[in-house]
Amino acid sequence: MFRVDSALSRAVLIALSAALAPACSAEGEEGTTDDTSGGAGAPTAASEFTCTDDDLESLAPFGGPGFKDGALTGAAQDTYVASSTLLWLKPDEASQRRFGELMAPIASQLPTQEGLIGFALGTSARCGYARTVTVWKDEEAMGKFVMSDAHVAAMGAGSDVSVHGAVTHWTVGAGDLPLSWEVAREKIAAAEISY
Fold first, then answer.
1. Which strand (E) or helix (H) includes residue 58?
2. Which three-class secondary structure state does DSSP give residue 16?
3. Which residues contact 107 (CB under 8 A, 6 or more apart)?
4. Residue 51: helix, strand or coil by DSSP?
5. Secondary structure (3-state) at 168
6. How far lies 105's CA from each of 60, 90, 123, 164, in Å?
7. Of the candidates 140, 134, 137, 130, which has an alpha carbon nearest to the alpha carbon of residue 168?
8. For residue 112, which of 4, 17, 40, 48 sits 20 to 30 Å off, Cα-Cα?
9. Which tens digit of pLDDT belongs to each residue from 105-133?
10. 8 A C-beta contact, residue 74 and residue 26
């Protein structure tokens, strides 16, 4: 069984919401997963992440600056950009400690990040997976977070602290919120491995 430190996981997962988003292509159609591939035939998350994480522990319910108590806090938009990440964390203590160090600045930045609507975080002790699902006002807002200094530093160290990572993003409507883990699993399963 894989041990995932819950305090570390909370910080890590907040930051992971868009950890690999630069690999994403242009915004897709509602209900479709964007192509995150670097080329044809690359392995998908479904083929590499074979452990079933039905023990997924939600570390925080879906919520954030634009979504509180089960509802949007502002006027609904026609569409939003949703993103999901899946990381297979390295089990050793040094990697997990480094992951926490990288994520601490992001953890403090994300809850007030302009354009973030909401997010949910989860870990699987059985599989050693960390999952996120986030919703952004638009791709520009997601991109500003992704290109922030703390986030760029964390992306650069992704392979130091995890075995594999995958990310995808797609378009959702206000009626699709909050996003469920089932939706996140379905979308990320088709995404190609980012590293």
1. strand 57-63
2. helix
3. 10, 11, 14, 15
4. coil
5. strand
6. 18, 21, 20, 22
7. 134
8. 4
9. 877 887 888 999 998 888 898 998 888 89
10. no
Tell me 79's DSSP state: -
Q: What Å distances lie between residue 99 and 80, 153, 182, CA to CA?
A: 29, 11, 26
SS3 track for 89-136: ECCCHHHHHHHHHHHHHHHHHHHHCCCEEEEEEEEECCCCEEEEEEEE
CB 67, CB 132: distance < 8 Å: no
**Which amino acid, residue 129?**
Y
Using DSSP's 3-state secondary structure scheme, residue 186 falls into helix
In whole angstroms, how far apart are CA 129 and each of 52, 94, 142? Answer: 10, 17, 23
Q: What is the pLDDT of residues 158-193, one digit of tens each?
A: 889 899 899 999 999 999 999 999 999 999 999 999
